[in-house]
Write a structure and sequence with these properties.
By secondary structure, the chain is of the alpha/beta class. Helix content is 47%, strand content 16%. It has a nine-stranded mixed beta sheet with strand order 7-5-6-4-1-2-3-8-9, sandwiched between helices.
Length: 325
């Protein structure tokens, strides 16, 4: 790029990746030099407790195209990777994991799809090495999101992909406090291409995605991508009201026939009260949804330090608060 801005940014979030960080940088650098006119690599560390930061500093010293962001604490698997993407300057931005489960060899295909006109290019896993229970849970989760989500869900898309500069700037301006980024990409409606791939095993180290982390991620994603669920009590209230109406008719019939009218009347009142309660819960949920839409104004992370970024490189859309050492 003529103004010194890299054509391609590759963002790699890290947490205790001392066994992978040097190897992934070497592999990504090799691919980027083949397929992009210029590039940068942004490593964003989520407060690692091993030697990851030491290795990141060494990488930054050896190659000024490698930049580092150190978070002042662990901000989770949604906020930190998304924040790193928002700090990228490239005309196109790739987000990928540090453990080689997102193959660096796909960078070339992503770039080709982008140059052909796609604004979002997502890798889609054909298969995964997970337990049958976890695979079943994921299938049920995709089915649930497909039914109640606010926009289509792409099964097997983990967020590994390439995003055009316009896409990144648009999503950063949303100021989503818990960004379900892979869902936001679809929600934004930009031109999208999908590239299937077979996801390899983790290169080294252990996965940080235990059941608790995955469950938390799923809840945040559901809350962020299925706001229509807040309206579910209203739909249920209409159902309860319909049952109450039928019971009321049955009560009138029972009164005429000298039947158990009082018992039916009790059920009628119960369902009517339940319908009213659900209606008010639905209205409260709708108000919460509207408030959530109006309050996307929380910084994703607070930085402790950044390395190799040009002066004044804090992108305003990310609302960064930086504490220098």
């Amino acid at each position: 790029m003529n103004d010194g801005t890299p054509e391609l940014s590759i963002v790699i979030p890290c947490f205790n990746e001392e066994e992978n960080v040097e190897a992934i940088c070497a592999a990504v650098t090799a691919e980027a030099m083949l397929h992009a006119r210029s590039h940068e690599i942004i490593l964003i560390d989520n407060c690692s407790t091993d030697a990851t930061r030491v290795l990141m500093r060494r990488l930054c010293t050896a190659d000024k195209r490698i930049r580092a962001i150190f978070n002042n604490r662990n901000y989770g698997q949604m906020r930190s990777p998304t924040y790193g993407i928002y700090q990228a300057e490239g005309a196109a931005v790739i987000g990928m994991c540090a453990d080689f489960q997102d193959p660096p060899q796909m960078i070339g295909e992503f770039v080709r799809q982008w140059r052909a006109g796609a604004q979002v290019v997502l890798g889609q896993r054909r298969s995964e090495s997970a337990s049958p229970l976890l695979r079943l849970a994921r299938r049920l989760g995709y089915a649930f999101l497909g039914r109640f989500g606010d926009y289509p869900v792409i099964p097997g898309a983990t967020g590994f992909g390439l995003f055009d500069r316009e896409v990144v700037d648009t999503l950063a301006a949303w100021n989503e406090p818990e960004p379900f980024f892979r869902g936001m990409l679809v929600e934004s409606g930009f031109r999208l291409a999908v590239v299937p791939f077979d996801r390899p095993q983790r290169a080294a180290g252990e996965s940080k995605n235990d059941f608790g982390a995955l469950f938390s991620f799923a809840l945040s994603g559901l809350a962020g991508s299925a706001k229509s669920l807040l309206r579910l009590p209203i739909a249920l209230s209409f159902g309860a009201a319909g049952i109450a109406l039928l019971l009321f008719v049955a009560t009138l019939v029972a009164l005429a026939a000298d039947g158990p009218a009082w018992a039916l009347l009790g059920f009628t009142i119960g369902f009517a009260m339940f319908a009213a309660l659900l209606l008010f819960l639905g209205l409260i949920g709708e108000q919460v949804r509207m408030l959530a839409e109006r309050s996307r104004n929380v910084p994703l992370v607070i930085e402790e330090e950044r390395i190799n970024f040009p002066a004044g490189r804090e992108r305003p859309a990310a609302r960064v608060l930086i504490r220098r050492p």
